[in-house]
Amino acid sequence: MPDNLIKHIQKVADLNEDEISTIQSLVEHQHFSKRKFLLHEQNQCDKLFFVEKGCLRMYFINSKGVEQITQFALDGWWISDYQSLLNNAPSDYNIQTIEESSVVSISKQNLDQLLLKVPRMEKYFRLIFTKAVANAQYRSKLMYEMSKEEFYIHFSTSFPDFMQRVPQYMIASYLGLTPEYLSELRKKSV
Amino acid sequence: MPDNLIKHIQKVADLNEDEISTIQSLVEHQHFSKRKFLLHEQNQCDKLFFVEKGCLRMYFINSKGVEQITQFALDGWWISDYQSLLNNAPSDYNIQTIEESSVVSISKQNLDQLLLKVPRMEKYFRLIFTKAVANAQYRSKLMYEMSKEEFYIHFSTSFPDFMQRVPQYMIASYLGLTPEYLSELRKKSV
DNA sequence: CGGGCCTTTGACTGGTTTCAACTTCTGTGG
DNA sequence: CCACAGAAGTTGAAACCAGTCAAAGGCCCG
Mean per-residue pLDDT for B113-122? Predict the structure, then answer.
């Protein structure tokens, strides 16, 4: 049983046995096969998800009825709808496995408990969120400065393995372009 | 002397006199007139800025040599280049006042000090960053689902006061469209 | 082996940019 | 306080990036 979450936390804060078992008592380990839902739109997202192994996508349905992917999550990444989480509001998003995945989830209530019982987890989550903001700034900058074509090339060269793992139409969606145009760009690049 | 930072923190955590003076000893209050720089590109961004009063913009120079605004910051908002901050790397961004502004800044080192001396500040910053991620998700969703025209209408109706305060070409830049096209959209809307 | 989903191809369309010229606003010095 | 220069905003024409639509081909999985 690969406990990647604990390893992930250990990088920031040494945990003793007590703390580890407190964490384990407050989180839930789950295994999902391909195409299973962790969150359905219109439900409140009251959990954070940590991907131990696998690949998730987060998407909403746009005004034309088309799935629009806004985020992927791979091994070692946290994902949630933070708007829904913070405001106790129904979510516009779906979170779904792309491939078979092991996920750790923690509810909002249990997170509060955890932070009270193991205060040094505050630092861990502060850093997780700081990095998330840094990534969001970076991605936003890329979208401002690049054309769709450049953005595609950047993505495919930065994450070549990802292009293998994930269907092309999902990558197109995430990059904000149509499957047809992505296909055209692929032809050009070869 | 309006101490908006302390008020802002008090919303999350009660502070006693000692804690307040610890904070005050580790932050720097500064007043900037219009168009003054808080950060110049190529320098490392080793501080976080809190806007007590006023308005800042964050921008980089794109490949065509044009200023590209990625964020604004108003009263009560934190702003920084977190990529630069976390990795001790030179920044691609400039942060500049748009109008006369009062700013509190805290260096990375002093932030570490502060978090050691006043541990409940961990929670404050964790929440700040969680909200920042929620906002980034929201903004990203808007950009996925809206045309430039819709995005402009959304922005101008959501922040009508902002349209008064900030020059049009800066809003165009932030919205990712040309000043000429924004001008056209304005004409249509009237 | 077959059906349906994914990808490709090509023609057409349109939202947005680019460029250049003109008008209006703003702030600074005399 | 006015004048005027430079910055900001507007207008219109032409070009282009990327989307839409329709149809065909490929491929995966039951």
Answer: 96
